[in-house]
Each structure stands twice: as C-alpha cells, then as structure tokens.
Amino acid sequence: MDVNKLIQDVPLFAESAANIWLDPYVAKQMLTAHLNEQEDGATRNKAFVEKSVAWLTEKFPSKDYPKVLDLGCGPGIYAEKFSRAGYQVTGIDFSPNSINYASQSAEKENLPIRYIQRDYIEIDWQEESYDLIVMIYCDLGVLSHENRRLILEKAYQALKPNGRLIFDVFTPARYQDFESTQTWQVEDNSFWSQEPCLHLERAEQYGSTYLAAHHLLNREEQKTFYIWETVFTPKEMTEELKGRGFTQVEHYKNIAGEAWEDTSDTACFVASKS
What we know:
GO terms for molecular function: transferase activity. This is Methyltransferase domain-containing protein. Keywords: Transferase. Pfam families: Methyltransf_25. By secondary structure, the chain is α/β, with parallel strands linked by helices. It has two domains: about 5-25 and about 175-230, no CATH class; about 40-170 and about 230-274, Vaccinia Virus protein VP39 (Rossmann fold). The protein is built from seven helices and eleven strands. It has helices at about 5, 25-35, 45-60, 75-85, 95-110, 145-160, 235-245, and strands spanning about 65-70, 90-95, 115, 130-135, 160-170, 180-185, 195-205, 210-215, 220-230, 250, 265-270. The strands form two sheets. It has a seven-stranded mixed β-sheet with strand order 3-2-1-4-5-11-10, sandwiched between helices. Strand 1, helix 4 (about 75-85) and strand 2 form a beta-alpha-beta unit. The longest helix is centred in the N-terminal third of the chain and has 14 residues, at about 45-60. The termini are far apart.
C-alpha cells in the first residue's frame, strides 16, 4: 500500500469509494448512533428531539400543514413523532439499514408512514406536493454546492403554496477554533473498523467547507471515507434561499425554535413559498 497517496490533497467535494451509509460495518455503527437517545450522534439526544418536535408541531400544526416530507429521515425518529401528531408523512433516506429499521418500527407501531430508500438527490420527489419539507440535523451542509442548490430548487417545486422548508445547518462558530490536523493511530474494533487497522484521520479547511477524512488500512484492504461540511451565516443562507424563489425566511438558533444568537454554532431556517 502506498501511504503517500492517502495524504495527497483532496479536491473539494471529492467522493470516497467507501460510503458510511453503505459500508456493511460502518452503516451498522451509524444506525446505532441514530438510536442512542443519550448522545448527539447521528440523531440528537431524546430531550432535544422532544423539544424540537413540540416547537414544530405547535408552530406548524397538522390541521394547517397536513403533508410532510422528511428528507434524510434516518430510522424514522422524527417521522414517527410527526405521524403520531396527525401528519401524513413520507420519509426518504439513502441508508438501507435506516429505512429497514424505520419500516419495521412503523409497522410494529401501526403508523401509516411511507418510506423510500433512495438518494434524494437523484429521485424526482418534487413531482408530489407537500405542506412541510424538513431536513433535520444539518444534512444540507454535507452536500456539494451544486447538490445543495438542486435540493433547494426541488423543495421549492414540491411545496404547496404557503408551504414551508425547515432545516438546520452549522455556522462558522462551530469551527472558530479549527486547525488542520493529521493524526495516526492503531485501532481495534473501533467505530470505523471491526478489524485491527491503522487509522489516518485528517481535518482540512476549504474556505467555508471542512473535510473530515478517515483512511483505514489493514492486512486485507484499505478504505477511505470523506465527510464534507459547509457552514453558513444567516445572511448567506437567507440570500441563497431567496435566490431559489422563497419569499420569506426566518432564522432561529436551532430547530427547537430558540431565538437566534450570534454565538450559536447552528442556525435553523424556515423558508416560505408564496
């Protein structure tokens, strides 16, 4: 294995051959993280989820906004809560593990949720119409600039008049102390690999976009995972939303509806379609 190849510069938004949602081992780890109610892993902790659902359902009640699309729904944690609150819910997620879990849970709980296991960038979900479209836990920021704009355009097309797109992103405050790093360590049965491996972890900055790269080497194989994150100020995201046709944009500290603070490391946006 040529280790030098692993530490070369990575082009902005390059895709790694391995994928955290499809890798047999890491995908299971991701599902476990989603279901951990105590930690802010793939899904935020239970108390925050409850708080955010309470705000969303009060501000956008099901009688006024009956049809909901949950993009990046994961194992259905928010989708189930929306369904219990009286919404008609569709959830789309790329992860087979998450959708299988969500479908089985909905069947067990007798919840009429429609789940679709596909890449929401590729499929034409905008052919239907919704009152609310949600993307929760900063999913929008992991997309390339091109794909992010595509999703915003699709959301605008898919919303009914007076519909709302609701999502959160990370802000520059999250990375205010950022430094580029490159570390090596030997791991055994870690989050990234069940087998003993050499793990090279890199953190790099590309303007307002950040890369977390994980290179894993063992006797049998090598894998690389790239995780991208773009951050936004409220002004930047508001301008982008209005450039995609949204007429009114509100912003908050988080998706629980707390008042905006300049030091917040997240921002929640509610974008309205006329």
